[in-house]
Amino acid sequence: MPARRHPTARQVRLGAELRKLREAAGLKATEAASLLGVNSVQMSQIESGISGVSEQRLRRLAANYACSHVELIDALVAMATDRTRGWWEKYRGHLPTPFLDLSELEHHSSYRWDVDFLHIPGLLQTEAYSRALFSYVNPEFSQDEVQRWVQHRMERRVIIERPDPVPYEAVIHEAALRIRVGDRADVRAQLTRVLELSEADHITVRVIPFDLDGFAGAGSAMVYAGAPVPHLDTVVRDGPHGTAFIDAQAQLGRFRTLFRRVEAVSLGPVRSRDFIHRMAKEL
Question: Is the overall model pTM greater than 0.85, yes or no?
Answer without folding.
Answer: yes
